[in-house]
Amino acid sequence: MSLNYTKKTISHFLHPKNLGSVKNANATASVGNMVCGDQLSFSIKVKDGVIKDIKFLSFGCASNIATASVLTEKVKGLTIAKAKNLDWQEIVKDLGGLPNQKIHCSILAVEGLKKVIAEYETTHQAVKVKKTLKKSKK
Amino acid sequence: MDNAATTKIDSRVLLKMKPYYLRHYGNASSIHALGQENDLLLKACKEKIAKIFQANPNNLVFTSSATEANNFIIKGVMRANREKGKHLIVSAIEHPCVLNSARELEDEGYRVDYLPVNSDGLVKLDELEKMIGPETVLVSVMAVNNEIGVIQDLAKISELVHKKGAYFHTDAVQAVPYLNLDIKKLKIDFMSLSAHKFYGPLGAGLAFISSDIKIKPLIVGGGQENGLRAGTYNIPAIVGMTEALILSYKERVAYIKKVKTLRDYFWKKIKQTIPEVYLNGSVSKRTPNNLNIRFRRIEGEAILMDLSFKGIYVSTGSACSAQNLKVSSTLKALGLDPADLNSNIRFSLGRYNTKAEIDYTVKCLKETVKRLRQFTPII
Q1: How does DSSP assign B177-214, residue by residue?
Q2: What ipTM score was computed for the predicted complex, to two decimals?
Q3: What are the pLDDT digits (tens) for B235-259?
Q4: CATH number of the domain at A7-137, please?
Q5: What's the whole-model pTM score?
Q6: Domain B252-373 of CATH type 3.90.1150.10
Q7: By a Cβ cutoff of 8 Å, what residues of chain A touch chain B?
Q8: Predicted confidence (pLDDT) at residue A138 exceeds the cutoff of 60
């Protein structure tokens, strides 16, 4: 079986960025499960529509850890609108490629990002609606 | 630490092989002198090997691998004995080459039952007794499991299989030199071996067959091996396999003592140093080279890769490391908690491992497990 990771993937596996959980996170979400062999949890802090901080936890292989790490680096500082459109192929490109059977790791990482953003939007949409209602009453 | 995958060839074996590449390179099927001297050599090799296993030298068939030997025996016996029945039994923890041969036969209309194992990894004999019927042709149970090193009770299985009128095959690839494989005493009809698992060369396998049971060839061609396995005899590899087998059994006692001492020390150290570790499979009915350890809450491939960067090479049954992204069928058959199926590492020691290597591995393993557990989402 061919399982050669790029230098960048290895570096992100050995020294992952943004590990852990964001304090006072605005949203958290998990994807994958342990039966499939991989699980990722993301937590984000958002201010003025921009992802100020993002951290992750991983139960997964080297490429699961590396893809999540590179994803957090990419989206930190991005607006929610831009982060939402992140494509898994960009992650693969960024790492200089992934072995075929590991492509699903990048898909899972992006799925996790979308889920945490969706979670943020559902909880904060409600707040926004309330604020607008208040304004309109004035 | 991955000797169950393959071993480093013994230099004494390599030296024995060399002249058969450089000088005595004749095709053993050629009738001139250069060929015929190798034909005689082949017969001598078979006699030497047969002696170790109390087998009949005429019942040995050289193959390119144990995978080929297993394919040959399982498909060959089932296809040649259709008038007897179309039922095959294989254990649930067989090597993929046995399981996939069985699946191929299922596609051809044969009926296959997969014999379950208990949580120790031992096949359930009472289930086997119920499974074997008048239609059953062959039962295949491996001598030693490749992942967890668990040793099956071949004598008991063989007795039961024969009492019920079926034939018995065992894949004994991981059993040399740990088990004394007396074919006659154990009444083994068919057996498979592979040279590179016991410090012999790659590309050399062996099928033990029975002169009383019909078998069809898998590879046909120029009629070698009495028409049972075509293809030019791989003389250097056969010479190497023969020498490796002789050395393995000659030095057996000292070798077993060495790996057992190292393995027991290794496991003791791991238990002392790392929390939440468990052994998969039976503790006592296990070859002395094997440890298959569950590291809860972290993933096997990540452990493997992290150790690999520290120069330590191991194996995992985790789905992430498999081509088909499927978790090991052996670990599944043990009935592990599904959450633990992807957290296992196999260490398989061998002749060249040292105590210093074990100490270094324990130190690295501790760091690796600590690092990965720092960011696991699993509580």
Answers
A1: TTS---HHHHT-SEEEEEGGGGT--TT-EEEE--TTS-
A2: 0.90
A3: 999 999 999 999 999 999 999 999 9
A4: 3.90.1010.10
A5: 0.93
A6: yes
A7: 1, 3, 5, 10, 13-14, 16, 19-20, 30, 34-41, 56-62, 64-65, 101, 104
A8: no
